[in-house]
Each structure stands twice: as C-alpha cells, then as structure tokens.
DNA sequence: TTTGTTATTGCAACTCAGTTGCAATAAATT
DNA sequence: AATTTATTGCAACTGAGTTGCAATAACAAA
C-alpha cells in the first residue's frame, strides 16, 4: 500500500529526516516527536514510507531498527547484487548509510536475494 | 568470564549444537530444552559460551539472535578484516554460517572494527 | 568423602521495542 | 458541503530477552 495521504504527522516525520544526514532509530523518532504524535503513528508511518521506497530500514548492533532516506530518491536496483553497507559508531552511536557498494560474490547452492551489511567501529569524530 | 563448570545444562546445550550443522536461534534452544532447563539458563549459558569463544552470535532477519559453533574451534583472527557471512533462508528459515570470507574494503574516515553480514535468500532445498 | 566455597540454576517478576483492536478523526474525492 | 475511508490516539498487549535472589550443585581442598 504505502503512503496515500500527506498528513501533518507524515510531514513532521519526513522533516526529521531532512534535518539530518545520518540514519535515525525508530525509538529516537518516537522520542523526538512525542509531543506531536503517538508512538504507534510513528511506527505506522515508517512502515508506509518503507513500503513506498522512500526510506529503508536496517537493524543496528543494539537490535534497534534504524531508518534512513534513500539518497538517490529510490531503492537501488541492484543489478549484480551490490549492497550499500551501514556504519554504526561504537562510541557515539551515530549511524549512517555509506555511499559505497560492496560486491557480494555468488554463493554456491545459495540463491541470495538481499544482503544486510553493518560495519561497526569508530566514526571520524570518535577516533582518538 | 565464561564457562567454568561443565554442568549438566552446559553439556545438554552443547549437545544440541553437535547435532546440527546450522545455526540455532536462542528461542529454538529455549523450546528444545524446555524440559531440561529454565530459559534464563539457556540465555546465560549462551552468553558464557560466547565469552569463551566457543560459539558466536548474530541477528537474523526476524530480529532473533542466532548462535553457531565456531567451525575451526575459535574466533577468526581477522587479519584484513575479512568476515564470514551468515545465510538465512527466506522460506524454511534455515540459518547457517557460510564458510567463506568476504573482504571488506577500507572505508574512508571510518575505523571499521567488526562486520555483520547477513545474506537472505533461498537455500538449496527451497529453490523451486 | 566430607566440607567449604562460589559458580550456576530456577523462579517469577520485570523490561522495553514494537504491535494491535477499535472508536474517533481528518485527508481526499465528488 | 457531504461522503468515503485512510489515518490516528489510546490503552492494552506481545514476546524475546533480562534480573534479583534464594536454593543448589560443581569443583577444590583437606
């Protein structure tokens, strides 16, 4: 299905993504928007935005679900099963899509359809 | 710390891993061993086994935590940040470590320390 | 093999991200 | 403006995983 109506809540949520270049966890969005909408609404809008290919989600190292806008306005049409990784800083928690593709080789006897790739380490600001 | 005592529960749990070549989710272990030990015990033993480098864990596409024995008897000492991926079948749910390494290139301005790589698709048995 | 030390376990209650049913509300369409 | 139905708020729920504490059982020492 996906987004059909441009409600006040949808606009507020999209605005949060436009303020930042990093990914945002669902939990963080619930917190930031707590005076503007119910937490169910946050989760439901995220689901619709993802169905519509406006954002995508992935799981962080803490198990939380993170969301980010598609940079180039839509899902990658992965011709050769490339994948873009996500990076999460072990120190400050900053999480982002990396604008690179890491090619995944064919795996014998396995029909690979999608790839989740999370790199964990220290970001530029946290490297001592 | 890790495993210190070889209790009946530890042996029963290790036995489950020796029965299978695939990974097992914590939830599945709780279920299988429900008449032999409490679920807290399952989680606590898994934690100790992981601390001791006997098993390793990763997150499946459903958000569950999966565990598998280290094939070669210990954690990989990843010299060049290679990583071994995990594969989960979208159809039957079978989940396993793939015995291959996928090299991850250096990422500018990011100090990558560890990598989680999950491939999702159809396993040999489920490819129609 | 008995005793002492303390790691391990069972239990029951808890945590907390995320979900759900349903009635009320508000976009979009006519 | 009236109508349709997607969307929202609310409150209760779900379910994997965690925790505090008292009881139990490995293991070491004697």
How large is the radius of gyration of chain A? Answer: 16 Å
Number of strands of chain A: 8
Average residue pLDDT of chain A: 90
State the end-to-end CA separation of chain A.
Answer: 46 Å
Largest sheet of chain A: 3 strands, antiparallel
Q: Catalogue the unreliable spans of chain A.
A: none
* Percentage beta strand of chain A: 25-35%
Structural class of chain A: alpha+beta
- Summarize the helix and strand pattern of chain A as letters: HEHHEEEEEEE
Q: Helical element count of chain A?
A: 3
Name the assembly state.
homodimer
General form of chain A? globular
Name the pair of protein chains with the most residues at their interface, and give those residue counts: A-B, 29 and 29 residues
**Order of strands in the sheet with most strands of chain A:** 1-3-2
Helix content of chain A: 10-25%
How would you portray this structure in words?
2 copies of one chain form a homodimer. Chain A is α+β, with helices and mostly antiparallel strands. Helices cover 24% and strands 27% of the residues of chain A. Chain A has a 3-stranded antiparallel sheet with strand order 1-3-2. In chain A, a hairpin with a 5-residue loop joins strand 2 and strand 3. The mean pLDDT of chain A is 90. At the A-B interface, strand 8 of A face strand 8 of B. Strand 8 of chain A pairs antiparallel with strand 8 of chain B. The structure holds a DNA duplex (30 and 30 nucleotides).
């Amino acid at each position: 299905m996906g987004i059909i109506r441009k409600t006040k809540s949808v606009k507020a949520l999209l605005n949060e993504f436009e303020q930042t270049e990093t990914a945002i966890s669902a939990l963080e969005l619930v917190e930031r928007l707590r005076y503007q909408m119910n937490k169910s609404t946050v989760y439901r809008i995220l689901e619709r935005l993802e169905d519509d290919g406006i954002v995508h989600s992935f799981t962080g190292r803490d198990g939380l679900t993170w969301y980010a806008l598609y940079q180039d306005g839509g899902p990658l049409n992965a011709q050769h099963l490339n994948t873009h990784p996500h990076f999460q800083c072990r120190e400050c928690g900053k999480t982002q899509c990396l604008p690179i593709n890491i090619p995944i080789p064919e795996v014998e006897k396995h029909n690979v359809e999608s790839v989740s790739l999370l790199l964990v380490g220290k970001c530029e600001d946290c490297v001592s």
